[in-house]
Structures are given as C-alpha cells and as structure tokens.
Amino acid sequence: MTEHRQVVVVGSGPAGLTASIYAGRAQLSPLVVEGEPSSTGDQPGGQLMLTTEVENFPGFVEGIMGPELMQAFREQAARFGTDYVTAKVSRVDLASRPFGLWVGDPGAAEPTYTAEALIVATGAKALMLGVPGEERLLGYGVSTCATCDGFFFRGKEIAVVGGGDTALEEALFLTRFADSVTIIHRRGELRASKVMQQRALDHQKITFRWHSSVVEVQGDTTVSGVRVRDTRTGDEEDLAVAGLFVAIGHQPNTDLFKGQLAMEDTGYLVTTDGTRTNVEGVFACGDVQDHRYRQAITAAGSGCMAAIDAERWLEERHAGAA
Ligand code: NDP
User: Fold this and answer.
1) pLDDT digits 0-9 by tens, 184-197
2) CATH number belonging to the domain at 3-126+250-321, selected among 3.40.50.150, 3.20.20.10, 3.40.50.300, 3.50.50.60
C-alpha cells in the first residue's frame, strides 16, 4: 500500500535533518528515509556519525562529538513532526506526479511512498584505493572510520592514507590508541588546512611518508602490512602495520538519480536558483551537491534552504491550482 506525503527527505545527515526541522515547523509532516547501515560505511546520520570531535559547529564552545550532534538534530526534527523510516530508497520515479519512491523491491508495481516535493540529501561516501587486499580486509584492519575502529588498534602501529583534513583528523584521533601512526601521502605537500597540518606535524606519534602510494594491503585474515611505492623512484617497500585507514576523499551518493537528475561528471547533483534541481519539485542539499565546502554547517544551511524552497514551491503550486 502506497503512503502519500507532501514532503519526503532522502538522507539523514545535517542537510536532511535540517530540512526536516524546517519542513516540520512549516507543518509539512516530512518523512525522512534515513538510510541503513551497510558494510561500505553507509549509515543513518551521515558522515558525522563517523567523526569524533566537531570543533567548528557554531554554538558548541568546547566542541561536540559527531554522533551526539546528529542525535540532537534527529530529536529536534522529531519534535516538529518528522517521521523516520530506517531503510534505503531503491528506486525513484521523478517523471510522474506525485513522485514515486520505492523501498525494498525496486521491481514492485507500486511505489512505497509518493511525494509532492522531494528533498535529496543523500550525502557522499568514502573513496577507496582499489588496491589488492583492500576490499578483502575491509573490517579486518582496513577501515574508513577511525571513530568506529580506533579502539581496536590499542598499542599497534598503523597507517593512514591521504593528505587532506580527513586524513589528518583520523591520524590525530588514532594517536589516542596506536603506538605510532604513519601518514602515507602521494605528494610532498599536504592539502589539509594549516591548523591541522601543524597539529599533525607536531605530534610525536605521527610520522609522514611522503611521495608514496599504497599498492597492496597485506595480511591473511587481518592486516599485517602494506606495500608502499615511492611515486618518484618506483621503489617498493613493505611497512609492517596492523591497520590501514583510508582517508582519500568522497563520492556523492547519486546512483539512484542517474538519468533523472542533472549531475556533473563527478556525480554531484547540479542545483541552480537555491537548491532547485532540473526536475521541478525536487530539491538537493548538502554534500550530494557540494564538493566545495563539504562542512556540517554548510550542509545544514543548504538543508534549511531546500526546505524553504520546497515549502514555497508547494505553496505556489497550491495557489495556482486553487
Ligand atoms: P580531500 O579531497 O580534501 O583530500 C583527499 C586526499 O586524499 C588528498 O590529499 C589526495 O591527494 C588524497 N588522495 C585522493 N585520491 C587518492 C588516491 N587514489 N591515492 C592516494 N591518495 C589519494 O578530502 P578530505 O576527505 O580530506 O576532505 C574533504 C573536505 O572536507 C575538505 O574540504 C576538507 O577541508 C573538509 N574537512 C574538514 C574537516 C574539519 O574542518 N574539521 C575535517 C575533514 C574534512 P592530493 O592532495 O595529492 O590530491
């Protein structure tokens, strides 16, 4: 049986939940399809669920833990009438009105939900290296989430790949548990912000392996080491580590919308005039359409914009139909 909603929000990170707070307060009773945990790191609450301390979200003088912040977002949205379903959307039909959304069997004749307006806030996920051993040992020493897995590496030697803020943040967090953290970076300079660079460079437990790429993750049932290649000389060397944290950037979660919503070559959704997509009534916010800022606060801000855009669009439509 199909359930009809005025507004459905797909995604439950800062963008989706802020959109829900605003849509809820506009009495649009939003439904959030919040996603579900998967082995590839997807989970309700988005990327902040994989973060430790958030120091730059305004209003928290001493910082706040990512999962705690998302729990507060969630409860705040619930307070204004947001309903949640813990599931993934498996198919969308944006050509019909109302829009159709399927959860579960994408081949089912009838959609699970229909929506007059749709807010896409599906975020982005961690990129992987694609080297031998990485996928096989994911969860057995290979990780994309220091917060989730750092605890398992107490007293161990581990490595982090990447030179951006994520890599340095992960490395700094992992020093709480590991004896040593080696940051493996393919270039001779970091992409991360200066403040993070300084913290990492100054840290006694952190060492850098410059101009190096990981070409293989080694280990039988758990990680025992990584093979590292010097990007200038091509020389290879094995590094004995018990864990490898991959922190090399993200990919937007837009497969669901291929062929229906306009996207850039990189897969990020194209928005114009605020949060509008190329399909009238479909709005996009947060990391799924932002490869530039990618911050919790900018995602939350664009979630607010999407809800206001959706509310106004619904109002205009109803006024036109009256
Ligand atoms: P970035 O895209 O900023 O950095 C990715 C890093 O991974 C780069 O150093 C890149 O190398 C390297 N890399 C990419 N692909 C490969 C590969 N195949 N093999 C080896 N290395 C690779 O991603 P982040 O996730 O670090 O950050 C994303 C955004 O989020 C940024 O804007 C960042 O500032 C922000 N952020 C902010 C935080 C904060 O303020 N607390 C915390 C975390 C993220 P190269 O440099 O050579 O391209």
Assistant:
1) 999 999 999 999 99
2) 3.50.50.60
